[in-house]
């Protein structure tokens, strides 16, 4: 299955699941709670207010070596949008990709998605654990602070705290 097949399939519209494809074109579905979606909304607003020189995209599809992955929230610079527009899926990752961890996600899965987004050009990947922690990664590994905005990870925790 190709990503365009997923997008155009009326039976896959309005599902309460995040849909991704693995490298074999098989559908992967992950349920998301209302709490998870709340975090996604607050995180989007926080990024929008703190990083205005770009676009915030939720449920952003990126074609990777392991199929199409969907980042919960991304920040794409104006330059990225000028170059790539709103192609679906992107063949390159926006500069910042954020994954919000659900109870059904394993650390191994999050590590793999982090690697996939970085391999496709993301400058930074944030892994947000529902209200408890934000881990920040770049090509050199785990970071203490975001290169995009000092103290932003702490603001994220304050905004999404339980």
Structure, described:
The chain has one domain: tt1808, chain A (Alpha-Beta Complex). The model has no long low-confidence stretch (mean pLDDT 87). It has a six-stranded mixed β-sheet with strand order 3-4-5-6-7-8, sandwiched between helices. The protein has a two-stranded antiparallel sheet with strand order 1-2. It is α+β, with helices and mostly antiparallel strands and 162 residues long. 30% of the residues are buried. The chain contains five helices and eight strands; from the N terminus they run H-E-E-H-E-E-H-E-H-E-E-E-H. The chain starts with a helix and ends with a helix.
Which descriptors apply to this entry?
8 strands, globular, two-stranded antiparallel sheet, 5 helices, six-stranded mixed sheet, alpha+beta, tt1808, chain A, 162 residues, single chain
Give the helices and strands, then pairings.
Layout: H1 3-8, E1 17-21, E2 27-31, H2 34-50, E3 54-64, E4 67-77, H3 78-84, E5 96-101, H4 107-119, E6 124-129, E7 133-138, E8 141-143, H5 152-160
Helix pairs in contact: 2-5
